[in-house]
Specification:
- A hairpin with a 4-residue loop joins strand 1 and strand 2.
- It is built from no helices and 35 strands.
- 0% of the residues lie in helices and 52% in strands.
């Protein structure tokens, strides 16, 4: 016999418009599903007891309860799911009078890890050609984002990298390309690809490995004239995988053999060396230069430049003899002076002339000669008349006269002698 049907009071009632609203999937991971919803539009007088959440797999009709006790929250995480399964969730609103309103999510949801597209964060210094010298190590660390961890691929010039020379290490956060000792053959376009399913991100990195250039070619001496030598050469056969940015020219005197730099950073493949010393013989050499420096060796000129001595008669200049003869001339005439009676005083003047003029002094147009009261001195053109203990009688006009074969010059001054009055 079949079991008797349950009593009518035991059957939950379907509540019109009592189901949860806006049921939505908020998040999906490899083992969980997060749901959220809004309360029902209709809640009866008995109120709302809470919510029950259930789910079923796509291939199964059995609903599995997530929470055995009702919850009042409107967000719930269904855990312990199996990645790759498709599940359909539903939420029941349990009303206080026993009624139930059910909201079923219309589609099945694939349980899988959420996917963040792969993203390569290329450092700024790698966005242009990355230049390194041969012999140095190369260590490129490039951050990579993505969930799940993207698969990483490196290629060089559209070919897989040589695993014998290049070490690749990948981690959840970055990828590292390492070469212990760079060679010129490591130059090229490296492409990094990060892929998750059909999502791909890739970047290209230009790496240029450079070294010092070779020496210039075919250095030769074009011409030698006067104190100048014209040189010419051709660019080096090997530029070191970098542009040649100039040449350094040096010269050496055959006597000393020491090399001296004439010019640096010479851009043309020719140069004229000037200001050479006559009578010397010179050798020349030229270095090429790129961003790594000067070439290890230089191109040396096979020929030697001989700067000949120039013989020419020496004609001594003819100078016109200057006539230094000059008539007497007072450069500083004597000046008027006031003397005190009884105190020796002096009169001064200066005169020049060639031949040396003869000096005489006059007082009131009378020649002073062999008078012990007066002393006449002449030294290097300075004329001095010393008057010993003058009295008022010695006042008057004094004249200095200078005479030589070319002429005569006179200069006057006045001497006043004041009397000292002694009070009783």
């Amino acid at each position: 016999m079949s079991p008797s049907p349950p009593a009518a009071s035991e059957i939950p009632l379907e509540v019109p418009e009592g189901q949860p609203l806006d049921l939505a999937v908020d998040d999906v991971t490899g083992t969980s599903l997060t749901l959220n919803w809004n309360p029902p539009m209709y809640i009866g007088p008995a109120g709302l007891a809470g919510y029950l959440v259930e789910y079923r797999k796509e291939s199964n009709e059995t609903w599995v309860a997530v929470n055995k006790e009702v919850t009042t929250k409107t967000v719930l995480v269904i855990k312990n799911l199996t990645e790759g399964d498709k599940v359909q969730p539903r939420v029941k609103a349990v009303h206080g009078d026993g009624g139930i309103g059910t909201a079923v999510f219309p589609d099945s949801v694939l349980i899988r890890q959420s996917i963040d597209p792969p993203k390569i964060r290329l450092p700024r210094n790698l966005r242009e050609t990355f230049v390194r010298e041969a012999g140095q190590p190369l260590n490129l660390s490039i951050p990579i984002q993505g969930n799940p961890q993207p698969s990483i691929t490196w290629t060089k010039d559209e070919q897989p990298v040589d695993q014998a020379r290049v070490n690749i290490r990948n981690s959840p956060r970055d990828t590292i390309l390492f070469i212990r000792k760079l060679e010129r053959k490591d130059s090229g376009k490296y492409k990094l690809t990060a892929q998750t399913d059909s999502l791909v991100d890739e970047v290209a990195i230009d790496i240029q490995v450079v070294e010092k250039p070779g020496p210039p070619q075919n250095l030769k001496m074009l011409d030698v004239w006067g104190f100048n030598v014209a040189l010419e050469w051709q660019p080096p056969a090997d530029n070191g995988n970098a542009e040649v940015n100039g040449y350094t020219i040096q010269k050496a005197d055959k006597k000393t053999g020491e090399w001296f730099t004439v010019i640096e950073k010479c851009h043309p493949c020719s140069y004229t060396v000037s200001n050479l010393v006559m009578g010397n013989r010179y050798n020349f050499r030229v270095f090429s230069e790129n961003l790594c420096g000067l070439s290890e060796t230089a191109a040396q000129c096979k020929d030697t430049a001989n700067i000949p001595k120039i013989s020419s008669p020496y004609n001594a200049p003819v100078y016109q003899e200057k006539d230094f003869n000059e008539a007497p001339k007072f450069t500083q005439p004597p000046v008027d002076k006031t003397a005190t009676e009884g105190f020796t005083t002096k009169l001064f003047c200066s005169v020049r002339g060639n031949p040396k003029p003869r000096i005489s002094w006059l007082k009131n147009q009378m020649l002073i000669d062999q008078n012990p009261k007066f002393r006449i001195l002449t030294n290097e053109g300075i004329c001095t008349l010393e008057i010993r203990k003058p009295s008022t009688f010695d006042g008057g006009v004094y004249t200095c006269r200078a005479v030589n074969a070319l002429g005569e010059a006179v200069a006057d001054c006045r001497l006043n002698v004041k009397t000292v009055t002694v009070s009783q």
